[in-house]
Structure formats: C-alpha cells, structure tokens
Amino acid sequence: MQQLWAPWRMPYLDSSGKDPGCIFCVKADENNDRANHIVYRDRLTFVMLNLYPYNSGHLMVVPYRHVGMLTDLDGDSGADLFTKAQLSITALTDVMHPDGFNLGINQGEVAGAGITDHIHLHIVPRWNGDTNFMPVLADAKVMPELLTATADKLRPAFERLAGG
User: Fold this and answer.
1) Which one from 37, 66, 120, 122 is the annotated catalytic residue?
2) Does the residue 111 lie in any domain?
3) In DSSP terms, which residues pair with 126 in a beta bridge?
C-alpha cells in the first residue's frame, strides 16, 4: 500500500522502509501515545512501557529506524539509544526510586527477542526483595500498578528532565 504524503507528519514518523506489521513501527506512527504507553519521544528514538513487564516501570528505548541488529543502526541512532537509556534511568529514579536496574538488548530469537526485527533496549527497575513466588509457581507476574498510572507518573519527569 502506497503511503500518501501528509504535511503534518514529522520526518521521524515517516514509515517508508518500515515493516507495516512491526508493533514498534505501528505504535510510533500512531498519534496515541497515552494508549500506546509511550512516555517520551525524541528525534531518533522513543521510550515506552513494556506491555509484558518484568517489574513496574519496565521501559523500552526504541529507535524509529526499523533494524533487527544493533550493528545496523547508524551512529547517531545508536548513540541516542543509550542517551535515552540514561534519561530513562534518571526519570525512573526520580519517580519510582528503584535500588538498581537491569538493562538489556535481546538480539535475535535465540537470545530471547520477542520482536526480532526491530532492535530495542530494555530498562528494568529493580528493588531489594522484588522477586516473589508467583513467577516461579504460576508463570504469572503481579504488578502493583497499572501501566497507564506508571506512564502518567513518568511523562512529566521525562519532559522536565529533557528540558521541555
């Protein structure tokens, strides 16, 4: 399907060359950040909550560029991925006060990537004693807060920290 030019679209939302079925590409192109749990957008990357979080505040930093390998990102997008990881850690620390973080990129299906064709960086806040028996016994996670509530707390922190 050919995409029509729309003057209101920002250049980084141009989906030419993106997989139309990629969840990250679809969410980036939609104008519904609240429903999509996108907490921050910038020129090369955006930050969103994971729909299947390991812990409350589990974020993903996602480049707009649709590539499956970190080595396929251009230098600016790769640098911005980690710059926004730093911003995300600062925002999570400011709002949620975790005791530590796990950061990771699962590149390829064998490495555990649920979405193999669009690289993204996971940021999982951790608290002392945050593991419990539910994931071990029932393959279920108990989240103490809805994603929308977490997103509503994080958005102002990102805006303040990013300067606007």
Assistant:
1) 120
2) yes
3) 100
